[in-house]
Design goal:
By secondary structure, this protein is mostly beta strands. It has a single domain, classed as Pnp Oxidase, Chain A. The protein has 1 helix and 10 strands; from the N terminus they run E-E-E-E-H-E-E-E-E-E-E. Strands 1, 2, 3, 4, 7, 8, 9 and 10 form an 8-stranded antiparallel β-sheet that branches. A hairpin with a 6-residue loop joins strand 3 and strand 4. The two termini are 17 Å apart.
Length: 187
């Protein structure tokens, strides 16, 4: 098989955008190039580790007594997550980290009346731009904010915000939609 280097991607740029806490019914993009609805707000700079797209699904194997051979493997629990680390302290990032809390704009900045986390399901768009200018957009209609890692205040490190988005199924049973803008890509 010949190697086609034009099909190798390194998504080195892009954005992560999200709707606000409790916002529902926002029109979702259906391609890789259309402008996002104004309800989507950019979370800002993501660290150079980029975005981790993870799929987990367990299975249970069944064996026959005769010959102790595998006769079936039933799929079990499925989990799709997207993880990234935000570098910016901004209103969008704070609304994710402190979802369910009361964030108030003040003349001098922002105040947060922090509450325990609540279920926080929003729509998300991850838009990647490859080194060769190819686009990939992932739309997550129902992304629940999952684990939020530690935030470190240090003279040796940047203050960052770790975010995990757990993709939940929409009314069609889909956890995400991918749109890859590359006319040379064929099935």
């Amino acid at each position: 098989m010949a190697i086609d280097a034009t099909k190798i991607r390194a998504y080195q740029n892009g954005l992560v955008a999200v709707t606000g806490f409790g916002v529902t019914g926002t029109p979702l993009p259906t391609d890789a190039t259309s402008a996002l609805n104004a309800a989507f707000r950019d979370v800002g700079t993501i660290t150079d580790d980029g975005i981790t797209d993870s799929t987990e699904q367990d299975s249970t194997d069944f064996y026959a007594w005769q010959g102790n051979v595998l006769v079936a493997s039933l799929l079990g629990q499925f989990n799709k997550t997207f993880s990234f680390v935000c570098s910016e302290t901004n209103g969008v990032t704070l609304s994710i980290v402190y979802g369910g809390s009361t964030l108030t704009q003040q003349a001098w900045g922002v105040s947060i009346a922090e509450k325990p986390s609540v279920r926080d399901v929003r729509s998300w768009v991850i838009h990647g731009i490859s080194d060769s200018g190819k686009l990939q957009r992932i739309v997550i209609p129902n992304g629940q904010v999952g684990e939020k890692g530690e935030t470190t205040w240090s003279s040796q490190e940047l203050t960052t915000y770790q975010v995990q988005v757990r993709a939940l199924p929409d009314l069609n049973g889909n956890v995400a939609y991918r749109y890859i803008y590359d006319a040379t890509l064929t099935l």
